[in-house]
Design brief:
This protein is an alpha/beta fold and about 280 residues long. The protein contains 6 helices and 13 strands. The structure holds fe (ii) ion (2 copies).
Length: about 280
């Protein structure tokens, strides 16, 4: 089973430019998933779907998702608005006022969390949501689980974006997942970069964005002294393809070139066949 993840598309960043860069970059990712060799079984859009949480941007997103040949599941990020999202996507599951749900898949439960607190840039996970997560995990201790959440529950060293690693919301989340070995992976977004880490021993994969990328600079930032450093850069849009093999999740990432397909430097022809044959022989032992 292939689970595609696109995150942080930030549709509507350019209010006056309907075909703006963020729309083009998301379009490239959707086209690749639909027309490329790795058509997913489902697509997870893990929050910051829009820049301003406005109805026009959700409508634009809905039009882009309308003709896809696989189901799409939406989550909220700090740039989203739950009510506006539900108005445009009435099938989005709401539970206790949050966009949180369990997706039963073959041999896997995908649990989507809501880490939005309106007006706040960083994550949030209140006692109600923590209890909801605990209840879902306790309801089935056997079937493997993958948790998806917009905000990663760690600080990663990107100083200007990091939250407090000791924040209460992170402690609530960590406590809720502790002692549940059925959790095989946590998927997140929000940081606009590809990052791997772990949370209480569970692998954490942070998906790169389709919207422009956060520059990789791990030096401290001074909120009182802008130093001219690069903050947002034009690295390629990208998405993740998570391959569930019944026991573990294997995450692949694909970068999208601007407009044109990547140049093919070698194709599968008879010259390449020697290497293909060699590896096939080795695999068979
Ligand atoms: Fe974002
Ligand atoms: Fe975000």
């Amino acid at each position: 089973m292939l689970i595609a993840q696109i995150t942080d598309c930030h549709i509507g960043f350019f209010r006056s430019d309907v075909g703006g860069a963020n729309t083009r970059r998301l379009r490239a990712a959707l086209d690749r998933l639909r027309d490329g060799p790795n058509r997913p079984d489902l697509l997870l859009l893990s929050g910051d779907l829009t820049e301003f949480g406005d109805a026009a941007s959700y409508a634009r997103l809905a039009a882009m998702l309308a003709d896809l040949p696989f189901p799409v599941h939406l989550m909220v990020g700090n740039h989203d608005d739950r009510d506006a999202l539900q108005a445009t996507f009435p099938d989005t599951p709401f539970d206790q006022g949050f966009v949180q749900y369990v997706l039963p898949l073959p041999g896997l439960r995908l649990i989507a969390l809501d880490t939005l607190e309106p007006g706040r840039h960083g994550g949030a996970f209140c006692a109600e949501r923590a209890q909801w997560l605990s209840d879902q995990l306790d309801a089935d201790l056997v079937t493997p689980v993958v948790i998806a959440m917009h905000h990663p529950p760690i600080a990663v060293g990107l100083d200007w974006l990091d939250g407090d690693a000791d924040a209460a919301w992170i402690a609530r989340f960590t406590k809720a997942i502790a002692g549940h070995p059925q959790i095989r992976a946590i998927l997140a977004g929000h940081l606009h970069r590809t990052i791997h880490a772990s949370v209480v021993g569970v692998p954490l994969t942070i998906c790169p964005s389709t919207a422009p990328t956060v520059a990789l600079n791990l030096t401290p930032v001074d909120p009182e002294r802008p130093d001219g450093r690069a903050m947002i850069i034009d690295e390629p849009a990208a998405f993740a393809l998570h391959r569930w093999e019944g026991e573990r999740l294997i995450s692949h990432f694909e970068n999208l070139s601007a407009g044109q397909p990547w140049a093919v430097l070698a194709g599968y022809d008879t010259a390449f066949q020697d290497l293909v044959r060699l590896n096939a022989r080795e695999r068979r032992g």
